[in-house]
Design a protein that fits this description.
By secondary structure, the chain is α/β, with parallel strands linked by helices. It is built from eleven helices and 14 strands. It has one domain: Alpha-Beta Complex (Spore Coat Polysaccharide Biosynthesis Protein SpsA, Chain A). The mean pLDDT is about 95. Bound molecules: uridine 5'-triphosphate (UTP).
């Protein structure tokens, strides 16, 4: 087993891009066909060989914890009606990882959410996965994005983050890094939160997968609010970069920004097409529909 034993998933944000549904339903619990978005993220963690998940939750997010808990009444009903397959599927979910949940009492920013994990994570290296970003391996043999980052960390013992190239018109939606290409990775020397297109140092964007050494906590401690008055993870990452302690790497994976309405619908269609029960019917429907569309 590697040195990364915990993953932190922040889910305490307000989800304003997905209002009104997110006024009572956590964005992370929105369904991708029949599974909540967050389950895909937790599965990515489990497939990286990590067993402990630190969930940062907030008010109106109890549905998330309930999902990973047992539901004895439901289990008994499934047992009585002989729905063994569904029962096994639920058991598999409950046993996938250990869930440790911590409340972020106020959504003060992603950096603040990550800092909430310090009492559980201490000084160990750990992975961070944004709960509304879906990353799937393109083939069953491909390691998950989190596993790819863990591998680079094991090799270098340096915090490593996933990056992807985006169009100039998109840079203002992301944290953007600047750095120098080395052999298998990029040595980061700057990180900027959502820059305007004309001020972006590059078009290498952060899609929400990270592995940090415990040192990130010392940079998050007492970090003043940054862009939009929020405590920004990118500001702490910038400090790591200034100390020459941050790497970035492109990843092999399919990525869906499911925290955005269009990205969410695209994820549902593409994952729906692979679904054993409805995939073929959905394909037929989409074919028919495309004939009707102008
Ligand atoms: P986002 O900014 O994408 O999520 O934060 P949001 O704030 O929920 O959504 P919008 O932008 O208002 O629509 C990235 C991740 O960080 C978490 C969010 O839950 C999301 O998974 N987050 C953000 C926290 O846990 N706490 C915060 O204070 C801010």
């Amino acid at each position: 087993m590697g040195s990364i034993k915990k993953a932190l998933i922040p889910t305490a944000g307000l989800g304003t891009r997905f209002l009104p549904i997110t006024s009572s339903v956590p964005k992370e619990m929105l369904p991708i066909v029949d599974e909540p978005l967050l389950l895909h993220v937790v599965r990515e963690v489990a497939m990286a060989g990590i067993e402990d998940v630190v969930l940062i939750t907030g008010r109106r997010k109890t549905a998330i914890e309930d999902f990973f808990d047992r539901h004895v009444e439901l289990e008994e009903a499934l047992e009585r009606s002989g729905k063994q397959d569904l029962l096994e599927r639920l058991n598999e979910i409950r046993n996938m990882v250990n869930i440790i949940s911590i409340r972020q009492k106020q959504a003060l920013g992603l950096g603040h959410a990550v800092y909430m994990g310090k009492p559980v994570i201490g000084n160990e290296p750990f992975a961070v996965l944004l709960g509304d970003e879906l990353m799937l391996p393109p083939t069953p043999e491909t390691p998950t994005v989190t596993k790819q980052l863990c591998d680079t960390y094991e090799e270098t013992q340096i915090s490593t983050v996933a990056i992807m190239e985006v169009a100039k018109s998109e840079v203002s939606k992301y944290g953007i890094i600047a750095g120098k290409k080395e052999d298998k990775w990029i040595r980061v020397h700057d990180v900027v939160e959502k820059p305007d297109a004309d001020q972006a140092p590059s078009s290498w964007a952060l899609p929400g997968r990270y592995v940090f050494s415990g040192e990130i906590f010392s940079h998050l401690e007492n970090l003043p609010p940054g862009r939009n008055g929020e405590i920004q993870l990118t500001d702490a990452m910038c400090k790591l970069a200034q100390d020459n302690k941050l790497l970035a790497r492109f990843f092999d994976g399919l990525r869906y920004d499911a925290g955005d309405k269009l990205g969410y619908l695209i994820a549902n269609i593409e994952i729906g097409l692979q679904h054993p029960q409805i995939g073929e019917s959905l394909r037929q429907y989409l074919k028919q529909l495309s004939g009707k569309l102008k």
